[in-house]
Design goal:
Length: 334
């Protein structure tokens, strides 16, 4: 390890301890007042992340771990996805979504008609992704030891039909979540095949996790926008951004306030990824009335009411509480 890395490690070990009281003694040289540095905010000291990795996440709001999930596991997730697309299994609570351009065409009961599976917590094989030890050991670096799997997705980004509908607007995931604190929430997003700019890789705006939750709504795109694909209203396309090109099994972990999205799939293949949003079991629900999240609360409640034939008695909190699953430690507040 380089001398610089060793100094960073010593610094972080110091930050993770309770600050000591220091008394200055009289001396014939100049006396300096010591102020201990602030504790790192976005990561926790589990001895897994290196000092360089922790500082990178603190500054940028994401970190990419290469080759984290095995080919064997990813191939099993792909086979289960194909079974669901062939309608060989019926998973309670699962939401099967199609791109708005595909939805206007004749329905074909195979994977080419499906752009996303959402809320697969009742599917034992797909949900196994959320419990992989190699994933959870990194999640703990952000949430702490009590871990809830809150939101699950398998994305099957289709080839763009020509209307740019395969894009995902730049957004912050916290817009969808009525729980806090944001710093104890993290997403794991794993590439199920090679992901690059041609097939619509993730695009992130580094450092935006340090800001606040922005106002979101549907962007005014000519080709249409997929359901629930809200975007930051104040997003400026000239903001410096990073394209996260990844290989199969690579996994990116990112903060829920990080502004991110994805471009068009300009290939003839489908770009697959699997993801889970985790929250600390010590997080708590909030009331979003009077906030910028009121619009997504209204939309989610309307969808849930139609799906389960419920009235106004269902709450935004309810729609999340039934999806959450404890995967490690204790479920205290969630």
């Amino acid at each position: 390890m380089s001398r610089a890395a060793e100094r960073l490690r010593l610094l972080i070990n110091h930050l993770d301890r309770q600050p000591a009281f220091i008394t200055a003694a009289p001396t014939f040289t100049q006396t300096y007042t010591y102020s201990p540095p602030k504790k790192l905010r976005y990561t926790l000291g589990t001895d897994l992340l290196t000092p360089e990795q922790r500082l990178f996440y603190e500054e940028n709001g994401f970190i990419l771990i290469k080759n984290l999930v095995s080919d064997e596991d990813i191939n099993k997730f792909r086979k289960e996805f194909e079974r669901i697309c062939r309608q060989e299994v019926n998973i309670p609570g699962l939401v099967v979504m199609r791109d708005v351009a595909i939805a206007k065409s004749e329905f074909v009961p195979d994977q080419k008609a499906v752009s996303k599976l959402q809320d697969f917590q009742e599917d034992p094989e797909l949900f196994r992704y959320c419990t992989l030890p190699e994933i959870l050991k990194y999640v703990e670096c952000f949430t702490g030891p009590n871990i809830m799997a809150m939101h699950t997705m398998l994305i099957n980004k289709p080839p763009d039909a020509g209307n740019k509908t395969s894009r995902h607007p730049m957004h912050q995931d916290l817009h969808y979540f009525p729980f806090r604190p944001a710093d104890r929430i993290v997403c794991s997003w794993t590439a199920m095949e090679k992901v690059n700019r041609q097939n619509g890789c993730l695009v992130v705006l580094p450092g935006t996790h340090k800001g606040t939750l922005q106002e979101h709504d549907y962007p005014e795109w000519e080709g249409g926008v997929n359901k629930m694909y809200h975007g930051v209203q104040t997003y400026h396309p000239q903001h410096p951004r990073v394209h996260l090109e990844m290989e199969k099994g690579d996994t990116v972990f990112f903060h829920p306030l990080l502004i991110h999205g994805s471009g068009m799939n300009q290939t003839q293949g489908f770009r697959k990824a699997i993801s889970c949003h985790y929250a600390s079991g010590d997080c708590y629900y909030i009331d979003v009335k009077g906030t910028t999240q009121e619009n997504i609360e209204k939309e989610v409640k309307e969808i849930a009411a139609r799906k389960y034939a419920l009235g106004d008695e269902i709450t935004f909190k309810d729609t999340w509480a039934v999806r959450g699953r404890l995967v490690q430690g204790d479920r205290n507040s969630m």
